Amino acid sequence: MSRSISISTYGKWILAGEHAVIRGSPALVFPTRATTMQFLWQATNQQLPHDNSPGLQVSFDGPNGEELSILFWGVLEKALGRVERKREDLIGKLKVTSHIPLGAGLGGSAALCVGIGRWFQVLGFIEPAQIYEFARNLENIFHGESSGVDIAVALEGRGLKFSRGGEWQAITPAWRPHLYLSYSGKRGVTSECVKRVGDLRSRSPHLGEKLDQQMRDAVELAEKALLSVEVVQAQEDLARALDISRDCFYQWGLCEGALDQHMRELLGAGALSVKPTGSGGGGHVLSLWDSTPPAEIAKIQPGRWISLFDE
Questions:
Q1: Domain range holding 107?
Q2: pTM, two decimal places
Q3: Who contacts 146 (Cβ-Cβ below 8 Å, separation ≥6)?
Q4: Is the dihedral angle over the CA atoms 257, 259, 264, 266 positive or is it negative?
């Protein structure tokens, strides 16, 4: 006898608030419906003799399944250790289908950790109220120190104004800005970017606090813009918020090489503003346009092009 359970988690994009969110500043974060991770669990209730037990069988599918398979087993072992279980306690088949590239600023590691957390909740290893903290601690493997912002949106599946240690507020834009995500062509490593920001703060605490405040200002202006019904002014404010946020990334030293080039190409093609989304150093770029981007934009776009709010 067996039962099947399907679990879905989403990737994410951050409008503003990166890095400063670790120190308690707010961030505006949204799910990307175009990037998902599905977990299909088929458990058997019939325990076979130990030497004949099929144990845990895991398969990976989707365009990003293979790269996920490299990381999965190490994360699973960490997760099992946290609940004082062993792999032998898992009898059944798990299929993970990933449409979220790793190292691209779209929350792939958070989607994986939340998926495992929800799976463990189904198995009775943790309670529903424990999933967030369980997944956040698990994500420390990737980030060094997880703020929890990616975990929160992967759990909620809706736009949030997130504050670490505070309440999460749902945020629904009053209009639909022409926002898009495009890949810079280079992967970013979150733990390295977090370390670089930390090193800057150690060398220059005053500058570090100034940049955190600047990012808080970007979040406040972006939230005001999203909730405004005066679309013309709102679009100007949103572009300014992205400019302010992008400047933080440049001062943190997280916009080198391919990322810098890609943002300049988007601005040259007519984008009103651009910024990295996620930790920086590479990954995806968020761009704001006055209308639908020109068709020739595909010529400078080396990877996936995602329309936001119109998905």
A1: 2-170
A2: 0.88
A3: 110, 136, 137, 139, 140
A4: positive
